[in-house]
Amino acid sequence: MSRVLHVSSGPYAPPVPARELTVTSADGARLHVEVHGPERAPAVVLVHGWTCSTAFWAAQIRALAPDHRVIAYDQRGHGRSPASRVCSTEALADDLEAVLAATLAPGERAVIAGHSMGGMTVMAAAERERFRAHAAAVLLCSTGSSRLVAESTVVPIRAGRLRTWLTRHILGSRAPLGPVTPLARRILKYATMGAGSAPHMVEACARIVHACPRTVRHTWSHVLSLLDLDHGVRQLQAPTEVVVGAQDRLTPPMHARALVAALPHCVGLTELPGLGHMTPVEAPELVTGKIRELVTTYAPEEPVKEGA
């Protein structure tokens, strides 16, 4: 599993959960799950992306937990979830289903927010009965359903075979990232964030990403390079909001627009000028606000029955 490495103060320092649990997925993989906030509050489930962890959602958890039950989990091999021999989009869908079953009551519905690979997890689970039973609405942040390597602009040359080859080898590198140095911050900022991202945002993201083991990073990069979840997008029946940074080099806005065109029930697209791939960190208030709006509209708190 990843080393636990994140900032310890400021808005991106992970808050202490109300409780923690270990959920077992369909193939036996163990997942670290955190629950924040009041037990009877409206539920929100947060699914992080490639090379990240629950710490990535610190700002959203901190803002939502006073009046929401916020559930966040580490994807297999990330954060405090041990690595598994099975790495596939089917496994990601299994994991999400397992977390929903373990943390939500039968018939309880939640707003599910996924960033990057977290959004792909949602798309992979879109046809699953348990997912459909629990998904009141969805927020997809900085994500895509296919052609991730071919459409990435991390390598600043004309699209084509050379750019695709270079991108695949850069993103799939087995090289260790090493300590978080000034050069490492500059590289991460260029690849994943907008030019105007504040230093404390870059620091928070760099610490999280550098904590991901290189074998996990490499293995999941291969899965993402072969990604084809276009069918899953068309099966995502829940009301879905899409957010993307206009300077996103990993999943450029063309992916968001393609999602909007394919989604059966898209309720909005927000393109954020000047922002990159790490939208929940770069625009924490906006992303939190989108989640709140979806809860208010599609998953309001149900009154507690007398005698309950």
TrEMBL record:
Domain of life: Bacteria
Entry keywords, A to Z: Hydrolase
Coiled coil regions, renumbered to chain: none
One of the record's GO molecular function terms: hydrolase activity
Hydrolase as UniProt keyword: yes
Pfam families: Abhydrolase_6
InterPro entries to which the protein is assigned, alphabetical: AB_hydrolase_1, AB_hydrolase_fold, AB_hydrolase_sf
Domain AB hydrolase-1: 44-287
GO cellular component, one term: membrane
Protein's name in the database: Hydrolase
Protein species of origin: Streptomyces spinoverrucosus
